[in-house]
Design a protein that fits this description.
This protein is globular. Helix content is 33%, strand content 19%. The strands form 4 sheets. It has a 5-stranded antiparallel β-sheet, sandwiched between helices. Helix 4 (104-112) crosses helix 5 and helix 5 packs across helix 6 (189-209). A hairpin with a 2-residue loop joins strand 9 and strand 10 (279-285). With 399 residues, the protein is an alpha+beta fold.
Amino acid sequence: MSRPALEVADIFRDHGPAWRQAHAGHVSLDQLKVMSAIESCRTAALGGHVARCEDCAYTSIAYNSCRNRHCPKCQGAAAKRWLADREAELLPVPYYHVVFTLPARIADIGYHNRAAVYDLLFKVSAEAMLTIAADPKHLGARIGITSVLHTWGSAMTHHPHVHMIVPGGGISPDGQRWVSCRPGFFLPVRVLSRLFRRLFLERLAALHKAGRLSFFGNDVHLADGPSFAAFIAAASKTEWVVYAKRPFGGPEAVLAYLSRYTHRVAVANSRLVAFDRHGVTFRWKDYRVEGRDRQKRMTLATDEFIRRFLIHVLPKGLHRIRHYGLLARGACAENVAHARELLTIRDREDQPTETTVDTAKPPCPCCGGRMIVIEIFDRGATPRHQPSAPTSAIRIDTS
């Protein structure tokens, strides 16, 4: 029998209690809640149901999922639902992928001021895009943006950046025509980078003046006004990374690409290789290297693996997916309809078809028959029925 795939939940269940005890007082309540949710995900602790095949009486147990947005096991279904909603907003134009990244020293400040700095990263990157796109020297149009926040690099280090998916064009200021960007070119990244840097540093200085930033360790001196002003001056002379990737092949390719980014967590279960007395081994990509050698393996002490995972727990209430411009939630449907009209898309057959998320229960793994629920049990309870021998309990996503 094949060995069960390793999961983050296994690591948390095995090492979590000792880790919490060793780091008591140095871990936030939000991080503790995430650990608890992942440990309990798809276990009897969250309850579940028992299903039986109508034809062969095969019986299985399905435990409830935690639905936590940081849980590696709970993101698949959430991503499918989100993508189905987004398909109705796709336009028949090329799409571009633009990424805004914070420099390391700014990211260091963001580590201890996550809510304020991540919110600033979202807003300033969107403002830079909307401003340059509206400039007649570049595009001269109102564009739409979907932004996704990632706070990690492939090695799970702190690396905050925003991924943007943007239609290749926009609506003219007078609302009378669709303005397409040049083929294969959206907006000048150097111009975006300069504006992004200036706006971000101005807003960061305003946060400092308002007393909304905290500093620790080697950065404690930045609480002083003149020291922070010198820091801002130095940051204004460094290069800030903004880059754009080539356009996608079409609406279907956009959805497939989006699914790779929208509901990711710091490390997917599929990247885990081993968990033993040496620590946790996982696959990662070294983007400094080209070709096959980019794919590498890293082993971290278990304490360090857990620490790196938890530094990416987002502050409560902070949305990691946001929409701007034509795609801002309030007027999105109206703007998309107007854009389609300007693109002369009137035939319903040319519009994206509605995607249906399959919420049906999986068929019987024994005979393919229909499975029906025969028992629902509460959190922490033991189901009265047992799974069919010799098969152990089958855990399926009930979210």
